[in-house]
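Quick one - first record:
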Amino acid sequence: MMTLRPAPLTIVPLLCCLALSASGTTGHATLTKRGGTGNTDAPTQQRLTERPPEGNSPTVTAPSTSPSPDHRESPEITVVAAGDVLLHNALWAQATADAKAAGRSGYDFRPLFSEVESIISSADLAICHLETVVGPSGGPFSGYPRFVVPPQIIPALKQVGYDGCSTASNHSLDDGERGIRRTLTAMDAAGLAHSGTARSAAEAAHPTIVTVRGVRIALLSYTFSFNGLRLPSDQAWLANDLGADALLDEAKRARAAGAEIVIASVHWGVEYSQTASPAQTKLAKRFLASPNIDLVLGHHAHVVQPFERIGGKWVVYSMGNHVARQPQRETTQDGVIAKMTFRRVADRQWRTITAEGIPTRMDLFGVYDAGAMRLVSIPAVLSDRSISPYLRHVCNLSLDRTKAALTARGAASDGLIIRQSQTSR
């Protein structure tokens, strides 16, 4: 029941860079990506990450003031975001089995995501939440409570269609500075933007800004906890500790740096609770009251929590697990992919015109794909007439739980669309 995989994404470095600022900020190389799974007629999308790389800052040349066709601003931008990428040991074993099935050694994490790949890769901007740090290529690796996971997850996320990931979480410090450094270096090598952790004070000082079809979008990431571990006093820049003032200040700096849309990813809330806590709702109201924040995306609870519209903007309190192995609760196997459509309403001003939730389920017992653990799209499964009655029953129950959680704070009356089949929108 597997879907065909699209051809690997084409990544081509372009000859344009950021001009040096007074502080010596440089930019990563510009990358191109063909949008739409298997659709060679899809428009090319262009992204430029503006954040200083590690090491010496080379001299760079300012880009031409005449935009190429790919740099022309689009009147609408689609953003998809997903929940926690939390690699428990059993998922490494699945990746080993998938690599072996393909005649390779090592780990192949791409099949884990294959059933949602078309959703991710078709967005203008796709953001994941990489909750754990990665280890060296050959290990050693460790699981809960201090995760150090196979680095092969990072190129797999890029291949699936993700453009960047938030990285501030309660597991950011699980392997200390070396874990953060290793993770961000691997993300740079894969062409994945990142925010929330840093390798230097200079890197931490500059908001991550990506350019998507001519539109500059800032990605912020903060966490409320490090599971009892402490940031070194002389390296407080390693990871963003959640404070409302700090997040709002970075949003202001991102706006001043030219960001037209600012997205804040926040690791917060009460684990396994499908209700947004008073602390979450208070912070959400404060963040969305700022003219410098356009969307808040929540992580950490490992279960789905509500969407809510506040002052014309949206918060997703928790998208649940994207991929994880937490079989103790049905709700930890449910997830949602948030799809937001922004429309330009004035010069450098954007408004969310559509908020959509696409329910997912982590199939931990191989019901869908012959014994293999897979992340599945609930709408796709329920649109497949060939699935077993048992799987249809399981997915309908999952859908009902997710719908109830997503709409618990009035999102349905505010226009939230919950995709329930391949044709529903």
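second record:
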Amino acid sequence: MADMPKLKAERLRRGLSQTQMAAHANLHTQQISAIENRISVGTQVQRDALARALGIPVKDLFSDIPERVPLIAREQAVGDK
């Protein structure tokens, strides 16, 4: 679990599915999945919504995910799936 994104670890710790997490944050499950699988870093609005839904400061919840992912990394991540 050490390499698991904090968002996913916190979601699982609370016993929430991606669908439930998406509903709490008013987002789509695809957005949750992309952030948890490090395909996307999420927008600031998405990060704020997720942090608010979990009651955790954004900087703590996303300290393990960079603010931006280089385009080449995103293309490789999508191509590897």
